[in-house]
Structure formats: structure tokens, C-alpha cells
Amino acid sequence: MKHNLLAILFFCVCAITTQFFSQRVLAQTAASAGMTEEQAKAIKAIKIANLDKDTYFKSGGYILDRYEERPAYVFTYSDGITRKIYLYKIFAATDTKELGLLAIYQNGKTNDVKSFVIPGESADRKAWDLYIDDLKYVGEKEPGLMSTLTFVLSREMASLLSGGGAKSEDGSKKKEEYNFCFAADAPVLLPDGSAKAIAAVQAGESIRAYDVKTKTQLTTRVTRVDRHDGQFTLTGVWLSPISELSADKQAAPMAPVLLEATANHPVLTASGRKPMSELTTADVLYRLENGKAVAYRIVKAEKTTRTVSTVYNLATETGAYIVAETVVLDK
Questions:
Q1: Do 41 and 100 touch, CB atoms closer than 8 A?
Q2: Which domain holds residue 198?
Q3: Distant-in-sequence, close-in-space partners of 6: CB < 8 Å, separation ≥ 6
Q4: How far apart are CA 187 and CA 183, in angstroms?
Q5: CATH number (domain holding residue 268)
Q6: Which H, E and C letters describe the chain, residue by residue?
Q7: Are residues 12 and 78 in the same domain?
Q8: Which one of 66, 80, 222, 331 counts the least CB within 10 Å of its CB?
């Protein structure tokens, strides 16, 4: 009897918390973009290979992006089982409209995962019914699930009440938050030393990469190619070798070379990872020359170089690849 009462209490608190949470985080989503039951089922069926590493990816017409870049919530109960909750925002890939939230529960002993699709406020009633059914019929069968999920949603709701997140007026995710990308013509270095446009690179293909820890170049495999269509502003930095001389030691200094990407795309600097928008003339980047990483300093940074209609990003096994002969990082 006591167990049943606790289960009912957790169910009610979780349902109420979710409703408030969805109103706060998704209130700006247009009614026409509300999640349907079919969409909720499709999202629930998405399998994530590596929950700790896969924080941003496309699948079946949807984009999953780790909520506020949060790591997993981790709980260790007296039964010795570690339980985790991962949160992802859900966007429609076509127009980046925010549809809802995906909460994934993982049992550390069995490694079983349970997915809960939390619809946006304007979602179809049947999508909400699907979520409520999951809370009741899935949550009741897994000890510890309801308490961990309730805690996480309550904690995030409290955070929203004290601050809140930003979205565009039409309910879509802001482009500067959403994209970590390059223009279609950005040259990606291949293992044989040649280059091809990033738009032509395919998942499973081998490309040249860089190991940040060992400071050596290597070959890596592309695990995913992200493409986004719209209007995207590129930022750029002009680079010159610190020696002010070309690789063949000519007396005349090299003309600066340009690296372009969206503002948030990360690159490797002498002081670590930095987004393009934060780079200044005090920063040093690395370019591959004759198989070695050569330090280049930024001689000029431009907030806007051009606007393009399509942008691309690669996910790789090593987390770093080479664009325009410069070491850049995955999102």
C-alpha cells in the first residue's frame, strides 16, 4: 500500500512538474508546430549509440541537442545501482522549430534505457497521452525511475524560473546557438594530402585529423555529416605564420590565409578550445604543413565575411579534423 501511494505521488508530481516545465521552456513554440502522436512515437524510437558523447545529432528528420549542454544527472541509491537521466531538446530538422524534450533514463546495472518524449505546450493531446502512459506503465516497473525523473525536471524548472533560456520569436532555436558549421566549399583535408569540399564528404569516409593530446596528425572516420539550410552568417580570421615566413623560408612574408565558419564553431588554439566568435589577434591556431602542426597567429578577425544558404559540420571519431589546413574541432 505504501509503495503504491509513493508511486502515485511521484507520478502526480512528475506530471505536474512536466506541465509547468514545458510551459516555461516551450511556450514560444507556434501552435502549428506542435508535436503529433506520430512524431512522438518516431522520436521515442530513436536510438542513441553513446549517450555521453552524442550530444547533438540528426535522426529521421529531427535534431536532438543536449539540453543547455548539461551532462547526465547521476544518482546512486542505497541499492548500489547508478541511475542517470539525460535531457535533449527536440527540433524539427526542416525549420528548427522546437517540438519538445527527450528525457532518457539509464539503469547502470542493466544498461537498459527508457525514453520519455515530453511534448511542447501546443502539442496534440494524443502526444501528451503517450507521455502520461509512459510515466505510469514504464515508470512503475522500474524502481528509482520516477524519483530521478521527477527530481531532474523539478531542478530544471527551478532553474528556468530563476533565469530561462533564449529562443527566436517564432519559437525556433536561434541560429547562432544552433549551428557549428562551415560553408559548402570549405576544403577538408584527406589522408592522401588532397582536399575536397565539405559538402562532398560522406559519413564513413576517412579524412585527415589531429590528436590534440599527442599533437600528431592521423586518419579518422567521419561518423556523421550535418547539413542545415537557411541564411547563415560566417565569421572569419586571417592567419599568418608566427615566423612571418613561408614554409620554404622565402624572404617575403606569406599573404594571410582565411578561415571561415559560423560564430560558434570551435577551433583549437594555443590556450585550448575556443569558438570562432571569441578569437582575437592574441590567439594562435594550428595549420598542418608538411605533416606537422605549425603555429599561426591571427592578424585580423572579422565578425562577418559572407552569408551562405547551406552549412555543414562533421562529427568524427577523434573530435578534430582539418579545414583549410587548420585544426578545427567537432561541436
A1: no
A2: 179-329
A3: none
A4: 9
A5: 2.170.16.10
A6: CHHHHHHHHHHHHHHHHHHHHHHHHHCCCCHHHCCCHHHHHHHHCCCCCCCCCCCEEEECCEEEEEHHHCCCEEEECCCCCEEEEEEEEEEECCCCEEEEEEEEEEECCCCCEEEEEEECCCCCHHHHHHHHHHHHHHHHHCCCHHHHHHHHHHHHHHHHHHCCCCCCCCCECCHHHHCCCEECCCEEECCCCCEEEHHHCCCCCEEEEEECCCCEEEEEEEEEEEEEEEEEEEEEEEEEECCCCCCCCCCCCCCCEEEEECCCCEEEECCEEEEHHHCCCCCEEEEEECCEEEEEEEEEEEEEEEEEEEEEEEEECCCEEEECCEEEECC
A7: yes
A8: 80
Q: What is the pTM of this model?
A: 0.51
Task: Output the nine-digit C-alpha cell for 79.
Answer: 541499492
Last residue of a domain, one of 129, 146, 175: 175
The Cα–Cα gap between 105 and 37 comes to 21
Number of domains in the chain: 2
